[in-house]
């Protein structure tokens, strides 16, 4: 199957119907999201609940980021010690321990992870 076969499939009646159905689903999802936003704006309780959820997500993210502060310390200590300690405590996961996307596994690859694994190494900001 080549590129011309793909183009035929895309521009065939079946392809046009699939694209129309996809666009309709996208439109419905966007309208639903917009409706939720409108409901929050009109209902103070829903807005308060939404703001609390956002605050919690932000604090969780800040807490997760603060674990990696040891990378920026220039105290002369080896960051590997702190990295190993945090890893033993389960606060740090390395690439082999992370959940991988099964749909991206090809030719023996385990699949991709959703974060940059090099940023999770002890010496990332130390040169």
Describe this structure in words.
By secondary structure, this protein is mainly alpha-helical. Helices cover 57% and strands 0% of the residues. It has 4 helices and no strands. The longest helix has 30 residues. The mean pLDDT is 85.
Summarize the model shown:
The protein is an all-alpha fold and 127 residues long.
List keywords for this structure.
mainly alpha; 127 residues
Task: Draw up the topology in text.
Layout: H1 3-11, H2 13-42, H3 44-66, H4 79-89
Can you summarize the main beta sheet? none
Structural class determined from secondary elements: mainly alpha
Can you count the beta strands?
A: 0
Q: Fraction of residues in helices?
A: 55-70%
What would you call the shape?
A: flat
- Give the rounded overall mean pLDDT: 85
For the record, give the distance between the C-alpha atoms at the N and C termini, rounded to a whole number.
Answer: 47 Å
Order of helices and strands: HHHH
Unreliable stretches = none
Task: Please tally the helical runs, counting DSSP H or I stretches of 4 or more residues.
Answer: 4
Rg for CA atoms: 23 Å
User: How big a fraction of the residues is strand?
Assistant: under 5%
């Amino acid at each position: 199957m080549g590129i011309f076969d793909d183009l035929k499939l895309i521009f065939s009646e079946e392809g046009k119907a699939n694209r129309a159905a996809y666009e309709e689903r996208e439109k419905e999802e966007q309208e639903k999201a917009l409706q939720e936003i409108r409901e929050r704006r009109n209902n103070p309780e829903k807005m308060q609940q939404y703001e609390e959820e956002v605050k919690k997500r932000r604090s969780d993210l800040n807490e997760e980021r603060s674990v990696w502060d040891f990378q920026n310390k220039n105290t002369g200590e080896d960051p590997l010690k702190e990295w190993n300690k945090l890893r033993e405590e389960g606060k740090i996961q390395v690439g082999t321990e992370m959940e991988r996307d099964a749909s991206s596994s090809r030719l023996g690859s385990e699949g991709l992870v959703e974060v940059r694994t090099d940023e999770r190494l002890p010496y990332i900001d130390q040169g």
